[in-house]
Automatic annotation (TrEMBL):
The gene is trpS. CDD domains: TrpRS_core. GO terms for biological process: tryptophanyl-tRNA aminoacylation. L-tryptophan binds at residue 136. It catalyses: tRNA(Trp) + L-tryptophan + ATP = L-tryptophyl-tRNA(Trp) + AMP + diphosphate + H(+). This is Tryptophan--tRNA ligase. Homodimer. Catalyzes the attachment of tryptophan to tRNA(Trp). The keyword Nucleotide-binding applies. ATP binds at residues 9-11, 18-19, 148-150, 187, 196-200. Its main location: cytoplasm. It comes from the Bacteria. The lineage of its organism: Bacteria, Bacillati, Actinomycetota, Actinomycetes, Mycobacteriales.
């Protein structure tokens, strides 16, 4: 069987446009291209930085509702919460013992995130975060992992660990590939169009949350940083803000950037912004409604997660048994 797997952290009330265009849109499409799809909410990754327990619980369920609203289908995909699969944490330990301290220290996301709080107060969990991510993937013998550009290095570590285990103990893990879609792999901050759109940016003026009021998002798009030129062309170097808006509008309207650019001949940035805001509003308006409806029936969401956990645990337990055996652990009786 060919499997696809990915995860998204429950660390805000709404997924943002970078999450959607960089990753989630691919998740939906790939449900049909693989025999099995595994999509999950990594709540254990979320606590590598401090979280309010009630808020975390609420956001976990909201995340599931958003996945369903976007089109992740529980009939075709296994949807689960990471902490419901204890085998992932168990596999993490084995993988941690195969990871070099220096190797973990080279992860750029750790360096960025720990610099924010100060190295000394960063948690050990933040340091070992990528190894937990490797376990998420390797527990399921996954072939491809659809993610944005910022996850590339974590996927490289995952591949290295899979190969290391296989060469030390014999063929065990499938060595997974990152699936990163070039044009959408990095959606940029509207105010700072050379930095990725991120919920942890200093200001949220450049961040488009899917569940925000589309009027609020339209305002952010109207104030997006462009540049001093006036012609609408796709030039990442010279006109990164315009390129970002073109990318966003093309993706949400299923047109190509070239088609859009041709239509904007002789027009100004204002036109591009108004149209992009409109296309966004057309996309998020029904989505917001569906998320509200789904959250009205929490028991139904919990039932989907219970079913997902059963299916996911069966696969992960099988992998863990093999790994424990090869590692040399005495089987319990
Ligand atoms: P997370 O929760 O930060 O982001 C979820 C997905 O969104 C992508 N993404 C972007 N893509 C394009 N442009 C952007 N501006 C942008 N911002 C975010 C991310 O690349 C990601 O694909 N460590 C992961 C979660 C994780 C995971 C896993 C992923 C845990 N275990 C196993 C895959 C497989 C993370 O923090 O993603």
């Amino acid at each position: 069987v060919r499997r696809v797997l990915s995860g998204i952290q429950p660390t805000s009330d709404s997924f943002h446009l970078g999450n959607y265009l960089g990753a989630l849109r691919q998740w939906v499409a790939l449900q049909d291209d693989f025999d099995e799809a595994y999509y999950f909410i990594p709540d254990m990754h979320a606590i590598t930085v401090p979280q309010d327990p009630e808020v975390l619980r609420e956001r976990t369920l909201r995340s599931v509702a958003q996945l369903l609203a976007i089109g992740v289908d529980p009939a075709r995909s296994t949807i689960y919460v990471q902490s419901h699969i204890p085998e992932i944490a168990q596999l993490t330990w084995v993988l941690q013992c195969l990871t070099g301290f220096g190797e973990a220290g080279r992860m750029t996301q750790f360096k960025d995130k720990s610099a924010r709080s100060g190295q000394e107060s960063a948690s050990v969990g933040l340091f070992t975060y990528p190894i937990l991510q490797a376990a998420d993937i390797l527990a399921f013998d996954v072939h491809e992992v659809p993610v944005g550009e910022d996850q590339r290095q974590h996927l490289e570590l995952t591949r290295d660990l899979a190969q290391r285990f296989n060469s030390r103990y014999g063929e065990t893990f499938v060595v997974p590939k990152a699936r990163i879609v070039g044009e959408y792999a990095k959606i940029y901050d509207l105010q700072n169009p050379t930095a990725k759109m991120s919920k942890s940016a200093e200001s949220d003026a450049g961040l488009i949350n899917l569940l925000d009021d589309p009027k609020k998002s339209a305002k952010k798009i109207r104030s997006a940083v462009t540049d001093s030129g006036s012609t609408i062309v796709f030039d990442r170097e010279q006109q990164p803000g315009v390129a970002n808006l073109l990318t966003i509008q093309a993706a949400l309207s299923d047109r190509t950037v070239d088609e859009l650019v041709a239509g904007y001949e002789g027009k100004q940035y204002g036109h591009l912004k108004v149209d992009t805001a409109q296309v966004l509003s057309d996309f998020v308006t029904p989505l917001r409604g569906r998320v509200d409806e789904l959250l009205d029936d929490r028991a139904a969401l919990e039932a989907i997660l219970a079913d997902g956990a059963d299916r996911a645990r069966a696969v992960a337990a099988d992998t863990l048994r093999k790994v424990y055996d090869k590692t040399g652990f005495l089987a319990p009786r």
